[in-house]
Amino acid sequence: MTHQGAVLQGYNNELVKYLEDLIVHREQLNRQIRQAEQEKKMVQDEIAVLTVQLGHVCESLAWKSATQKELDKVLAETEVAYEKILESSRILLNVLKTETGNLDKVIALKNNVSGDG
Question: Quick one: a GO biological-process term for this protein (predicted)?
């Protein structure tokens, strides 16, 4: 019976060793799980912060794009109006040149008429 007791004691020792190894592995795995859960929470918190930041950036971008579109429209209208002003100025200048030339002829004729008399 001593031999069987020794064999049984050997089995028991080996069983206890495996149980202790399993407990150590479980504790290591529990630490890894807690660490992964903490990392997951940190990432989720970062995502929440980044989502808020993304929302602000998108709002800002939409506002800036709308403002740029409005400025482009105003600029295009202003350029058209300025071209009209330039054209009107050119026409006015031509009219003034013509009228000044005509006036100079009238004055010259008057001078010639009054100088002869």
Answer: axon extension
The model's pLDDT over 28-72, given as tens digits with 9 standing for 90+, comes to 999 999 999 999 999 999 999 999 999 999 999 999 999 999 999
Return the C-alpha torsion angle 75, 81, 83, 86, nearest 10: -130
- Tokens representing residue 22 in the block: 């399993």
pTM of the model: 0.56
3-9: long-range contacts (C-beta < 8 A, 24 or more apart)? none
The CA distances from residue 36 to 22, 47, 51, 97, 115, in Å, are: 20, 16, 22, 87, 112
